[in-house]
Amino acid sequence: MAGNGIDENCDGVDGATGVANPLEGELTVYPNPTSGQLHVTYSGGELLRLEIFDGLGHLLRSREVRHSARFSLTELPVGVYLLRTTSVASGRFVVGRLVVSR
């Protein structure tokens, strides 16, 4: 996820390394890393499904949102998780890394 302060592919740039965002609007996830509350905002009008997975691929949370949402992640252990954001209408999705730290 561009702008999250993490250089995902170790090239010295905090930016996207794949194809353009397949979603209609701009998706913002902050803070990342998080110590408890995660905020998600989306500028598009389509309905999104947000899913948080652990390192083994187990679905931990799923929620549908249109513009913004907050997740409380205080009960999750410190670690790295995946956030998959899917357009409910088109099925297009993006996946980003989410870090929980204390």
Q: Helices and strands in order, then pairings?
A:
Elements: E1 27-30, E2 37-42, E3 48-53, E4 59-65, E5 68-72, E6 79-87, E7 93-100
Antiparallel strand pairs: 1-2, 2-5, 3-4, 3-6, 6-7
By helix and strand content, what is the structural category? mainly beta
Number of helices: 0
How many β strands by DSSP? 7
Strand content: 35-45%
Radius of gyration: 13 Å
Give the integer mean of the pLDDT values: 87
State the shape: globular
- How are the strands ordered across the major sheet? 4-3-6-7
State the distance separating the first and last CA atoms: 21 Å
Secondary-structure element string: EEEEEEE
Uncertain regions: pLDDT < 50 for 5+ in a row? none
Helix content: under 10%
Biggest sheet features: 4 strands, antiparallel
Overall description:
0% of the residues lie in helices and 44% in strands. It contains no helices and seven strands. The relative contact order is 0.26. It has 102 residues and is mainly β. Strands 4-3-6-7 form a four-stranded antiparallel sheet, with no helix packed on it. A three-stranded antiparallel sheet has the order 1-2-5, with no helix packed on it. The radius of gyration is 13 Å and the shape is globular.
Q: What distinguishing features does this structure have?
A:
single chain; 102 residues; mainly beta; four-stranded antiparallel β-sheet; three-stranded antiparallel β-sheet; globular; Secre_tail; Secretion system C-terminal sorting domain-containing protein
